[in-house]
Amino acid sequence: MTEFAAQRTDHPRETPREATEPLREDIRLLGGILGQIVREQAGDAVFDLVERARVESFRVRRSEIDRAELVSLFAGISTDDAIPVIRAFSHFALLANLAEDIHRERRRAIHINAGEPPRDSTLAATYTKLDGADIDSATVENALRGALVSPVITAHPTETRRRTVFETQSRITELMRFRERTSLSVDETADVDLDLRRQILTLWQTALIRLSRLRIQDEIEVGLRYYDAALFEVIPKINAEVRKALRGRWPDADLLREPILRPGSWIGGDRDGNPYVTGEIVQRATTRAAATAIEHHLAELEHLERELSMSARLVSVTPELDLLASKSGDDSAFRADEPYRRAIRGIRGRLSATGISVLGELPAHGSDDGLDAYTEPAQLQRDLSIIDTSLRRNGDATIADDRLERLREALEVFGFHLSGLDMRQNSDVHESVVAEMLAWSGVHPDYTSLSEAERVELLSAELATRRPLTSPDAEFSELTTKELAIMAAGANAVRVLGAGAVPNYIISMCTSVSDMLEAAVLLKEVGVLDPGVGGDPSCPIGIVPLFETIEDLQGGAATLLATLDIPIYRAIVTSRGESQEVMLGYSDSNKDGGYLAANWALYRAELDLVEAARKSGIRLRLFHGRGGTVGRGGGPSYEAILAQPPGAVAGSLRITEQGEVIAAKYAEPRLAHRNLETLIAATLESTLLDVEGLGSGADEAYAVLDELAALARSAYSELVHDTPGFVQYFEASTPVAEIGALNIGSRPASRKQTEAISDLRAIPWVLSWSQSRVMLPGWYGTGAAFERWIDSDPNRLATLARLYEQWPFFRTVLSNMAMVMSKSDMGLAARYAELVPDVELRDRVFGMITEEHERTIRMYKAITGYDDLFADNSGLERSVHNRFPYLEPLNHLQVELIRRYRSGDEGDQVRRGIQLTMNGLATALRNSG
């Protein structure tokens, strides 16, 4: 779950204030230490300014003073003085995150220790539900065939914390846990507090952001750090737990032959709109991932070699273990009677040789013993099985169940490749590259002039032959040369590391059958797709259409069915176990049609795709391209998965994770375990239980949402697409221009060099509205749709109230909307609106925004019956109360610095100050982009 989706924390035997007092104590402790450090390091003047800003911000929140009084506090502040103030409030936001994470752990432990039933979104609760559902083995086996839950990490401009900051946060978290859960004397407590002070001082003296532009190489490393931080420990453990639990319940079913939880990544493979992705970058991404996996395995083997010290004089071993030890090349007299150590020494030597072969150098924890390399993980797994069997046969199962079992589980899921790197490119680029290849090879001089039917005929013919369309000495345009090099790098990763290294090829803005077949032709050209002999093709990389705009979502099922009607493509799908993945774009559909219209278009698309899969006899897997914020499909994961239509999950789920959400979910083992089990729990429930709740009323509910979505899209378009000057208002009233100009992130803010909203990337679109506290993509148009549809009819209002109670989809849409609106602040948004020089434009557009904001809150209350936006989320209310006054100074200082920057003050300190405010606000909001 994301930060602001915590369950209700008050315990039956406690008042709400008593339940949250430990959180306030933690915040006071950490904030007090930070305050002392600010005073000592930055001086009394800065400390006094920070403290005045803090006090005045709370007074604004309590409506004791006008916001203008706080604004005046920063009037004329020098940039040099502003920087430490920004840093102070940014650091507090980071420390408050830690305190809230620890408090959620605390509350969960209290509920568990009190013997209360397991809570929704835990696997324990899911198993209880499954036990009461009376599901037979055959149904479970069929439903979970090929089961997969895959969080896919993607790059994000605001999640660029340095490793030092990352590690210091982890140490602070551990110290806070130790302080609470260990019985300490007064002196011992003082020692812990002193250590906390050291860590917070280190944090204060470490730059939160680097001076240089973020590179893709940096983003690759940021993504990989989560494996050592948490994922190596947690993912194998969860896979083992789930497999044991399900097989124990249905022993006759053939379940989970492969690990259900398998991570993925886009970092280094997603080149849609990113000119900095090259063949070298793809090679680096896959090689660094492989190095991370192999070095982890070698480190575990190193530990095992020390731990398994059993002497042949004291224990028996199997003949297979003796043989393995004899092949190790370890002739040390000191280990002559230690067969396990010698066997593991040989395994380490072979895996080290694999590392040298794959990485070009000896990996960390390796030993160059001149042994033959493992060519695939299965060979290493067989050797580890020999050790496991020998231990168990000779009474050492307890030892086998420890590090060795963890390593075997890790090898099963991470292999030598670590995670699957998806490759992605826009369909327009594919068209251009294929056209140039066809022209060079003499197949057709002007592919782009062909009709869709002619394109499909030509491409189908090319896919049926092994004839290449290029040659090593062919001279192509810079674009085609670059694209073919990238494709070749992906193909090489598959050859070296196996099919898991690059499992999917995603086609952005996919609108037609030819878009699908063009990608297939490119995969054939680099040797990944084999047309086969006699019409028996194969392709280890799945071809995945990405439907993004509302129109593409509406036509997605038709596009898929038409593609499956092409014999060569259907044969490819058959060779992949009749499995076809489809990706759904949450971000662009929202930017295209607004929050409610996009959410309903996605739901309708899933219904249509499920029906298309049923008709064609394929197994459908959906990949949800969600961002961190509600405007990009974010929100609590458990509720979002349960809100999918019937048949849409079907045992498999892939979902993107990005931005501050990655750190919030996966920065350390307990967080990672909690959030990963949530994904699996929701996937199992959506697959095996009836969770939609509409029954025979589904068609009626769908018709209502059809009408609401059309009204919402119309209201959204009136502002975003039809209001003269809206683009100018957006550019002036948000930091979108600064996001592009200040090198935040490795990719350009727009796919193309235009000012069109359609060409702007979704991340800067949503991030800009989040920073300016409008949060427009998460709600605009919804209130108008409700008001127009109800039209003062109490029966219609009752219909929506009933849908809210009965239908998880509708309830989740409104709950997420309330969450994002609670983070909006029209008073602060007005400060950003003042940056618009055209007063008439400012008043007109901001007036439309504030009117719709008020209308949407009013309609939310009418439908739900709640008095405020926090009624169904006490954790959110707590966060807003504890945290949001500290955001106020960051917003005011950001406006002030943007004003200076746009007036010509482009000095390093101004630029750095803007970047720091962006990172501070993103840290505090936690799902801002």
Structural write-up:
The chain is mostly helical. Helix content is 62%, strand content 5%. It contains 37 helices and nine strands. The chain has a nine-stranded parallel beta sheet with strand order 3-2-1-9-8-7-6-5-4. α21 crosses α22. The protein is globular, with a radius of gyration of 29 Å. The chain starts with 15 loop residues before the first helix and ends with a helix.
Could you list some keywords that capture this structure?
single chain, 929 residues, mainly alpha, 9-stranded parallel beta sheet, 37 helices, 62% helix, globular
Protein topology:
Blueprint: H1 16-42, H2 44-61, H3 67-73, H4 79-113, H5 123-131, H6 137-143, E1 148-153, H7 163-181, H8 186-205, H9 216-249, E2 264-265, H10 279-307, H11 319-326, H12 339-359, H13 377-393, H14 397-414, E3 420-421, E4 423-426, H15 427-441, H16 452-463, H17 478-497, E5 504-508, H18 513-525, E6 542-547, H19 550-564, H20 567-575, E7 579-585, H21 586-593, H22 595-616, E8 619-625, H23 637-642, E9 652-657, H24 660-666, H25 669-688, H26 698-720, H27 726-733, H28 736-741, H29 762-771, H30 782-790, H31 794-806, H32 808-823, H33 826-833, H34 839-864, H35 874-883, H36 888-902, H37 908-925
Parallel strand pairs: 1-2, 1-9, 2-3, 4-5, 5-6, 6-7, 7-8, 8-9
